[in-house]
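Go through this chain.

——
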Amino acid sequence: MSKGPVVGVAGCGSMGLPMAQALQDAGYEVWGLDVRPTNEFGSFQSRMIEDPAEFARRVQVVISVVRDVTQTLALCFDRQALFTRAPYPKTLIVSSTLSPRFIPELRSRLPGDVTLVDAPMSGAPHAARLRKLSFMLGGSDAALDRLMPLFQAMGQPVFRLGALGAGMTAKVLNNYVASASVVAVRRVYARARELGVDLEALRSVMKASSGATWFGDNFHEIDWSREGYEANNTIGILEKDIRSGLDAMTAADRAGPDEFDAALLAAIRAMERFEK
C-alpha cells in the first residue's frame, strides 16, 4: 500500500523524472505528466498519463517542474488547464525557478481551496538521481509541515524560508551567484588550456582553495557542464534564471540591470561548448 498523498509530477524532464522516481521509491503513488510521448520515459512510462484531465482527477498533490512562467500558466490554466475544471488537485508545489513576482499572480488565479507552496530546488540532475537536491520552501507552516516528507524523500537539506514566495526569492538570488560562477569557471578553464595548465590539477587546486565553487567542484558530475548556449538547454535556462532574479531585484526599488548584470547575461549567451 502506498503512503501519503497521491503525487503528480508535471514536467518529467532531466529533473522531474528522477524526482518522481525518488518519490516512488519512497513508497508514494506517483504519476507523471509531460508533453512528450510516454514511450520516452523508459521504466517510468507506465506511470505517465497523457490526458491532463485524468491526471488532475487522479492526483492530490502536483509538483510542477516545467520550464518557465509561460509553461506554468499553460499547465495550470491554459493548455493542460489542471485547475480550471473539477475535480482538481488540492495542492500545487512549484519547483520551477520563476520570478518571485509571479507567485502572487499565480496564487490569485488558483481556486481558493488550493494550497500553493513554492519549492524550487538546486543540485542539477545528478543530485536529483542521488536524492540529494536542496529545496528552498515558501508557504504556510501547516502546508510545509504536511508536505515535508515529500521533500525529504527527494533530497537534503530542506530550507524553510518563510511565507509564500520566500523560497523562490532565495532561489533566484542563489542562481545569480551560481550563474556568475559558471561563467568564471568556464572562462578560467579555457584560459588554462591556452596557458598549458593541466585542468585536473587546476580543478584540484581550486577545490581546496579560495576558487572553490559548486560548479567547478562538481564539473564532471554535472550533466550540462560542457554545454554551449542554446535557448532551450540548461545554459539557456541559466539566462532565464538570471532574468527572474533581476525581475525580483527591479521590484525592490532598483533602477534595473546594471553593467555587471548586462555583462553576465552577455557572457552566458556567448558561451560555447567546452570540448574534452
User: Anything to note?
Assistant: Residues 168-269 form a domain with the N-(1-d-carboxylethyl)-l-norvaline Dehydrogenase; domain 2 fold (CATH 1.10.1040.10).
